[in-house]
Amino acid sequence: DIQMTHHPSTLSAYVGDRVTITCRASQNIDSWLAWYQQKPGKAPKLLIYKASTLESGVPSRFSGSGSGTEFILTISSLQPDDFATYYCQQYKSYSWTFGQGTKVEIK
Amino acid sequence: QVQLQESGPGLVKPSQTLSLTCSVSGASINSGAYYWSWIRQYPGKGLEWIGYIYYTGDTYYNPSLRSRVTMSVGTSKDQFSLNLSSVSAADTAVYYCATATEVRAFDVWGQGTMVTVSS
Predict the structure, then answer these.
(1) With an 8 Å Cβ cutoff, are B103 and A49 in contact?
(2) How far is the alpha carbon of B15 from chain A, nearest alpha carbon, in Å?
(3) pLDDT tens digits, one per residue of A5-54
(4) pLDDT tens profile B5-47
(5) Could you report how far apart the first and last alpha carbons of chain B are, in Å?
(6) Chain A residues with CB-CB distance to B112 below 8 A
(7) Which residue among A46, A100, A101 sits closest to B105, beta carbon to beta carbon?
């Protein structure tokens, strides 16, 4: 299986901060990477697919970059609604696998 | 707009079979547009893809679960199901159904259903 690793596991930030989350794959996955946001008690929500394509309806302050083995999710100006856990997921090869998540907390 | 809703027992005894159903609205399972998937999330938050079924009946399961998983499409064609046999406490999780495409990954999720394995 391809392993996905988040850095950091937890992040504390202020409203308005620029936030970056890194996800590393254990092998090349080209651009077959998705990012999800999950709030407590809710299902994950797709934010970005194909590493950098914003899902319809997702605010433009979210962006994704990277290819191969290293990927970044950026929130340009953190809003109160953005405090949540973020997961990356590879879909280059079966089994599709998720990272362990990065929790974004209020500082 | 596709909507998904999981249903099934919230408590299953060890060694028995966990059976869940996902009801689909806003799309036809026969459309060929999606891979109809199951994903679970452990209490410690880790997410694990279980497998998918395509409208043709083709399935692909996570190799770590393959010996215990069966997925099927309901006769009404607006439901698909998950059976997981010989469960143990390690199968306690929130189970989600979701749609997947080759490009957009898991784009629509159900709300999830908590399943506890306990005697």
Answers:
(1) yes
(2) 25
(3) 999 999 999 999 999 999 999 999 999 999 999 999 999 999 999 999 99
(4) 999 999 999 999 999 999 999 998 888 889 999 999 999 788 9
(5) 39
(6) 43
(7) A46
Cross-chain residue pair A44–B46, CB shorter than 8 Å: no
> What residues form DSSP beta bridges with B100?
B35, B106
List pLDDT tens digits, range B45-103: 889 999 999 989 999 999 999 999 999 998 777 999 999 999 999 999 999 999 998 88
Q: B96, A43: Cβ pair inside 8 Å?
A: yes
Q: Show which residues on chain A lie within 8 Å of chain B, measured between beta carbons.
A: 34, 36, 42-46, 49-50, 55, 85, 87, 89, 91, 94-98, 100-101
DSSP letters of chain B? Answer: --EEEEES-SEE-TTS-EEEEEEEESS-GGGSS-EEEEEEE-TT--EEEEEEE-TTS-EEE-TTTTTTEEEEE-TTSSEEEEEE-S--GGG-EEEEEEEEETTTEEEEE---EEEEE--
Do the Cβ atoms of A98 and B60 come within 8 Å? no
- In this complex, do A49 and B104 lie within 8 Å of one another by their Cβ atoms? yes
Q: Is B25 at the interface with chain A, CB within 8 A?
A: no
